[in-house]
From TrEMBL:
Signal peptide: none annotated. Residues 24-39 have a biased composition (Low complexity). Its main location: nucleus. The gene is atonal. PROSITE patterns: BHLH. It comes from Limnogonus franciscanus. This is Atonal. Residues 46-57 have a biased composition (Polar residues). Keywords: Developmental protein, Differentiation, Neurogenesis, Nucleus, Transcription, Transcription regulation. GO terms for molecular function: DNA-binding transcription factor activity, RNA polymerase II-specific; E-box binding; protein heterodimerization activity. CDD domains: bHLH_TS_amos_like.
C-alpha cells in the first residue's frame, strides 16, 4: 500500500499539503528500495537522492552508482525511441503512399494519417 501511494505521488509530482500533514519519508525503510526507482527520486545535477516529499537525503551517492543510473536511463530512453520509431514505420506502411521515393518524416506521417482518417470518416457518412 505504501509503495502504491509512493508511485502515485511521484506520477503527479510533490504535494506540499500531503508532506506537511504526514511528514517526510526521506530515511529508507524496509518497504522502500535503497536506490531510487524513478527520476523524481534523484537530483541529477547535485547527485543527491531525494525522499518522499522532495527532501534531500544526507547519504552521498557514489560516482559508480550515478554512472549506472545514467547508463540505465540512457538504455530506457534508447528503447523508448526505438519503439516509437517502429510504431511510425508501422503507421507508414498502412497509409496510402504518394509514390515518393523518400520516407515521410514523423510530422508528415502524422499529417497524412490525420488526412487519411478524415477521408475514411467522410466515406462512412
Amino acid at each position: 500500500m505504501a509503495m502504491q501511494m509512493y508511485s502515485i505521488m511521484n506520477d503527479f509530482g510533490p504535494l506540499p499539503a500531503f508532506c506537511d500533514t504526514y511528514g517526510s519519508n526521506s530515511s529508507p525503510s524496509s518497504s522502500q528500495p535503497e536506490s531510487p526507482s524513478t527520476s523524481d527520486d534523484y537530483d541529477v545535477e547535485n547527485g543527491q537522492q531525494t525522499g518522499f516529499c522532495g527532501q534531500v537525503s544526507t547519504k552521498p551517492v557514489s560516482p559508480v552508482v550515478m554512472k549506472k543510473r545514467r547508463l540505465a536511463a540512457n538504455a530506457r530512453e534508447r528503447r523508448r525511441m526505438q519503439n516509437l520509431n517502429k510504431a511510425f514505420d508501422r503507421l507508414r506502411h498502412v497509409l496510402p503512399s504518394l509514390g515518393n521515393d523518400r520516407q515521410l518524416s514523423k510530422y508528415e506521417t502524422l499529417q497524412m494519417a490525420q488526412t487519411y482518417i478524415n477521408a475514411l470518416y467522410d466515406l462512412l457518412r
